[in-house]
Amino acid sequence: MENPELTREMIEVKAAIAEIHAQIENIKERQFKIDDLAEAIHKTIGEIKIMNQTICGIDKRLVTMEQDSHDRAAMFEEESRKRKFAVWQALISALIGGAVSYFIFRGL
Q1: What is the DSSP string of 59-73?
Q2: What is the Cα–Cα distance from 85 to 93, expressed in whole angstroms?
Q3: Quick one: DSSP state of residue 108?
Q4: What pLDDT was estimated at residue 73?
């Protein structure tokens, strides 16, 4: 082989090496991006777990609040029934007392 031929082959080999080196750098960049993406996904999963716990806590509180509202409604209904009974009881007592008073004073 002659000198110009060797020079041309050497230039081709250097170009091939440079291309391989560029491909290796490209692969390294992609690996860094994949690592960053994996880290971001891991962080997002952690945040989703925290949000899920928060939502479960809110759900439990809502169930408790709903149950409390049902309990309060039942309690108000019971109090309403008791008040109505007390009003009727007072009314009946007043009517009986009035009737008894009427018959007592009428007989005098």
Answers
A1: HHHHHHHHHHHHHHH
A2: 12
A3: -
A4: 83
| Separation in Å, CA 26 to CA 16, 17, 39 | 15, 14, 20
C-alpha angle 35-23-15 in degrees, rounded to nearest 5: 160
Collapse the DSSP code of 2 into the 3-class scheme (helix H, G, I; strand E, B; otherwise coil) and give the result. Answer: coil
Please report, as a single letter, which amino acid is at residue 98. Answer: G
* Residue 70, token pair as written in the block: 């049902």
- Cα gap 18→23, rounded to integer Å: 9
**Which DSSP string do the residues of 86-99 spell out, in sequence order?**
HHHHHHHHHHHHHH
**pTM of the predicted model, to two decimals?**
0.47
Tokens of 17: 């090496």
CA terminus-to-terminus distance, the chain:
155
Q: Which two tokens stand for residue 73?
A: 């409604």
CA neighbor of 30 nearest in space, from 42, 18, 19, 38: 38
Tens digits of per-residue pLDDT, 32-77? 999 999 999 999 999 999 998 888 888 888 888 888 888 888 888 8
